[in-house]
UniProtKB/TrEMBL annotation, chain A:
Residues 2-227 form the ABC transporter domain. InterPro entries: AAA+_ATPase, ABC_transporter-like_ATP-bd, P-loop_NTPase. It comes from Streptomyces fragilis. PROSITE patterns: ABC_TRANSPORTER_2. The keyword Transport applies. GO terms for molecular function: ATP binding. This is ATP-binding cassette domain-containing protein. Belongs to the ABC transporter superfamily. The keyword Nucleotide-binding applies. Keywords: ATP-binding, Nucleotide-binding, Transport. It comes from the Bacteria. Residues 297-318 are annotated as: Disordered.
TrEMBL record, chain B:
The lineage of its organism: Bacteria, Bacillati, Actinomycetota, Actinomycetes, Kitasatosporales. This is ABC transporter permease subunit. The chain crosses the membrane at residues 21-41, 61-82, 103-130, 150-170, 177-198, 229-250. Keywords: Membrane, Transmembrane, Transmembrane helix. It holds the Pfam family ABC2_membrane_4.
Length: 318, 255
């Protein structure tokens, strides 16, 4: 269990993390989602006691990080795949961490095996690929067999096989009853791994809910229509009390079933080139969520929610 | 957090990177080789030396002449031990494993000081013994008054150079910045301040000038206001200040 209470980090004028309060519970994978620069990494560094909060506090199993005896036995973290000395071998990197927390040398060989780096254990870390570096970081996180695991953007730089491996690993760790807290800026990634979601934007908490709730609340269902008789179709819709949103060459209809639209078109002898029920992607839902926060709290010149701003355009303004 | 665990961990860190071996080897080889060369040149030029210089000739000190250059490798050692934690990003991994920053810092400094002292001791004795062998008839013996103190003192001097560098590196974090400050300081600024008469009195209190007093056996006719141990004490105060500064910044800063 990780508990944040009013956690805040200011850098001069800029508020990187703004009054975050939430809990990360054991037994499930909790996704920590936010656009780049939302404050995810800063929050994680504060959880590990690396950065000092301006105000607020973090409790790891009820205690402050600095009060943990041999912290690697309680919480293991992957912050940055390159957080190791390139001139040191994978084995010695893990060995020095193990020794600092009174862990036996046997654990070093075990975790090297788990992450599949045994064959290159004696090689210097600077020769490692991004994916191998990521695996070394994960080995370090697993070293103390901790109850809590935290991964910052773990799939970055991994190949498809590596991504699959890490998803499976996280789910297995959660199934073992551990607390797994993993950050990402990709909703699609979280949708595959996380059972619970914490979403932040510009350092503020935007959502703290289960993945199922998020999908239910945020996925927009609509019907897409393409027709050569656009004007007449719009008239028919209007008389039926329906409205359509135009996007490019297609029309999108909210709050109506595809069957209804088809029957309506048939009654008026309209030609349709496409009629398909659509589900807005979670990625879009996530974008809308974060874009709203940006617009509502900080900028009045951002396009309204739902409008097709380029992916990520709103974030860059932060 | 058991301190013994952290000491072991830091020892593993220091012995598992190649920079430890090459910086300390260079310090040893350069200091000894240059000391022997200068001792040999001194012996060759003996006949042309003014009588006054011959009377105040300090064979012990001359055999340590290589230290002015060899200490630069010691500086590199001290800087790398501390600052590679930052330049590589290892510091975050290290502090997540050992959140008690005081314990982490003290262990790192203590563990790095041990090999620095051992190498310094070997360097000092090798410089002295080989230098004296080359000096031939003008040599000093280890049993002469003040000589053993100067040789052991030379080892302490080199060790403190490394310790001072560790403190400065902890404050500056970047290896390039730390080396960029320390190298010119010891190789250019301090010798210049010590050579110009207007700044000589201030220059005396710089860590290397004060500390190197302990390697001198013959001190006839100089007006330095402190003795060998006093000088080393001044250098130790510099080290304490640098270490304290490094500690305060480490404690306060975000990693």
């Amino acid at each position: 269990m990780i508990a944040l209470e009013g956690l805040t980090k200011r850098y001069g004028e800029k508020v990187a993390v703004n009054n975050l309060t939430f809990e990360v519970r054991p037994g499930i994978v909790t996704g920590f989602l936010g656009p780049n620069g939302a404050g995810k990494s800063t929050t994680m560094r504060m959880i590990l006691g690396l950065d000092h909060p301006t105000s607020g506090a973090v409790r790891i199993e009820g205690r402050r990080y600095a009060e943990l005896r041999d912290p690697l036995r309680t919480i293991g973290a992957l912050l940055d795949a390159n957080a190791n000395h390139g001139g040191r071998s994978a084995y010695h990197h893990l060995l020095c961490l193990a020794q600092s927390n009174g862990l036996p040398e046997r654990r070093v060989r075990e975790v090297l095996d788990v992450v599949g780096l045994s064959a290159v254990a004696r090689k210097k870390a600077k020769g490692f690929s991004m994916g191998m570096g990521q695996r070394l970081g994960i080995a370090a996180a697993l070293l103390g067999d901790p109850r809590i695991l935290m991964f910052d953007e773990p799939v970055n730089g991994l190949d498809p096989e590596g991504i699959h491996w890490i998803r499976t690993l996280m789910q297995r760790l959660a199934a073992e009853g551990r607390t797994v807290f993993v950050s990402s800026h990709l909703m699609s990634e979280m949708a595959l791994t996380a059972e619970h979601l914490v979403v932040i934007g510009q350092g503020r908490l935007l959502a703290d809910l289960s993945m199922a709730d998020f999908i239910q609340r945020n996925s927009r269902a609509y019907v897409r229509v393409r027709t050569p008789e656009r004007e007449r179709f719009l008239d028919v819709l209007r008389s039926a009390g329906l409205t359509a949103m135009e996007t490019g060459g297609t029309l999108e209809l909210d709050g109506v079933a595809a069957e209804q639209v088809g029957e309506l078109a048939a009654r008026h002898g309209l030609v349709l080139h496409e009629l398909s029920p659509q589900q807005a992607s979670l990625e879009e839902a996530f974008m809308r969520l974060t874009a709203e926060s940006v617009e509502y709290h900080a900028h009045s010149d951002t396009p309204p929610a739902g409008e097709r701003a380029p992916w990520g355009a709103d974030w860059k303004k932060g | 957090m058991a301190v013994a665990q952290v000491l072991r961990s830091e020892w593993t860190k220091i012995r598992s990177v190649s920079s430890t071996v090459w910086t300390l080897s260079v310090a040893l080889v350069v200091t000894v080789a240059l000391g022997v060369l200068i001792s040999w040149l001194t012996r060759r030029e003996w006949g042309e030396m003014p009588a006054r210089d011959r009377l105040t000739f300090d064979p012990t000190f001359i055999s340590f002449a290589g230290m002015s250059l060899g200490q630069l490798a010691m500086i590199v050692f001290g800087v790398l031990v501390v600052s590679t934690e930052y330049s590589t990003g290892m510091i975050r991994t290290s502090l997540a494993a050992v959140p008690q920053r005081g314990v982490f810092y003290a262990s790192k400094i203590a563990v790095a000081t041990v090999p620095a002292f051992v190498v310094s001791l070997v360097t000092a004795f090798a410089s002295f013994l080989l230098g004296q062998a080359v000096l031939g008839p003008h040599r000093a013996a280890l049993g002469d008054e003040g000589v053993l103190r100067a040789v052991v003192g030379g080892a302490l001097y080199m060790t403190l150079i490394a310790v001072f560098s560790m403190g400065v590196a902890a404050m500056l974090r970047s290896p390039m910045l730390a080396l960029g400050v320390l190298m010119p300081f010891f190789f250019l600024l301090s010798p210049i301040l010590g050579a110009v008469s207007a700044t000589k009195k201030v220059g005396r209190y710089l860590p290397d000038q004060a500390g190197s007093r302990i390697m001198q056996v013959v001190t006839v006719g100089d007006d330095v206001p402190y003795g060998p141990w006093g000088g080393l004490g001044i250098m130790a105060l510099w080290c304490a200040a640098a270490l304290a500064g490094g500690y305060l910044l480490l404690k306060r800063r975000d990693a």
